[in-house]
Write a structure and sequence with these properties.
With 268 residues, the chain is an alpha/beta fold. It has 2 domains: 124 residues, no CATH class; 128 residues, Glutaredoxin (3-Layer(aba) Sandwich), CATH 3.40.30.10. The strands form 3 sheets. It has a 5-stranded mixed β-sheet with strand order 7-6-5-8-9. Strands 1-2 form a two-stranded antiparallel ribbon. Helix 6 links the parallel strand 5 and strand 6. Helix 2 packs antiparallel against helix 4. The longest helix is centred in the middle third of the chain and has 25 residues. The chain is elongated, with a radius of gyration of 22 Å. The two termini are 26 Å apart.
């Protein structure tokens, strides 16, 4: 799965790549501040804070229909969701506002370019999704039936690995249940990892959630099959039954919808 494990810490590959890129940017701007001009210190904070705020604001504006119903979610940065063109515009503006000479602006290209190279390299090395086919095993469902995942061939699937003790799983579950009920031509499968039937039934009843397909994967077979290092994990399986993308961690409505759209494009 496209994730990076650092001891007990598990991080999605795309977020890990961004952090490495930021780290490289900070190191180089620190060196420039000591050897070229102190204004690079202030500029680096303008770039980091202004870029993040602008990227998030751009994402919220692009998807304003979703955020109008949940305005506080615009502060949920852990979900992801950033519009990089607005971030680039903010970075370009900071160059002209803070670095007032052509010489300093040319030096600014060095940390920006290095940060982008480090980000892209880390993403390419750790962000590849392996083409894993659906397992042939039969899983018990909450309804008491046996279920083979490829029972509906040529049907794109969203498989969510979750547990009731997992806070991010609980936060995203109502949104995912809503998306599952309204999504057409895409099957949602909620595979509980390692919990008993009683615990799953109690959680769903207390949360007021109704899910069509809930698997009781008490030994975490699906998690091992797809090499998921943590929860929640959302797996996007194409019409060919092969994993096309995996998202580790809490997922936003916008990211979920964009990946569903890509799945539907594979439907014959």
């Amino acid at each position: 799965m496209n994730a990076v494990s650092l001891g007990p810490i598990v991080m999605a590959a795309d977020r890990f790549a961004v952090i490495l890129g930021i780290f490289a940017f900070i190191i180089v701007t620190g060196i420039l501040a000591r050897r070229i001009d102190q204004r690079f210190n202030a500029w680096s904070w303008w770039v980091l804070i202004g870029g993040i705020v602008a990227a998030r604001a751009g994402h919220v504006l692009v998807h304003w229909q979703n955020f109008a119903a949940e305005p506080l979610r615009m502060f949920a940065l852990w979900e992801g969701g950033f519009h990089w063109p607005t971030a680039l515009a903010a970075v370009a503006l900071s160059v002209f506002l803070v670095l007032r000479t052509a010489r300093l602006r040319l030096w600014a290209l060095l940390p920006l370019a290095l940060g982008l190279v480090v980000w892209n390299t880390a993403l390419q090395l750790s962000g590849e999704t392996q083409a894993i086919a659906l397992p042939a095993a039969t899983f018990e469902t909450l309804a008491g039936n046996g279920r083979v995942l490829d029972a509906k061939p040529a049907t794109p699937k969203v498989i969510n690995l979750w547990a009731s003790w997992c806070p991010p799983c609980r936060r995203e579950m109502p949104m995912m249940a809503e998306m599952a009920s309204s999504s057409e031509e895409t099957e949602f499968i909620f595979a509980n990892q390692g919990e008993s039937r009683q615990i799953v039934e109690r959680y769903l009843a207390q949360a007021g959630l109704s899910l069509d397909t809930v698997l009781l994967d008490q030994f975490g077979d699906l998690g091992r099959h797809y090499r998921a290092p943590g929860l929640p994990a959302t797996l996007f399986v194409g019409a060919d039954g092969v994993l096309s993308h995996a998202h580790l961690g809490e997922i936003s409505r916008e990211t979920l919808q964009s990946n569903i759209d890509r799945l539907r494009a594979t439907y014959p």
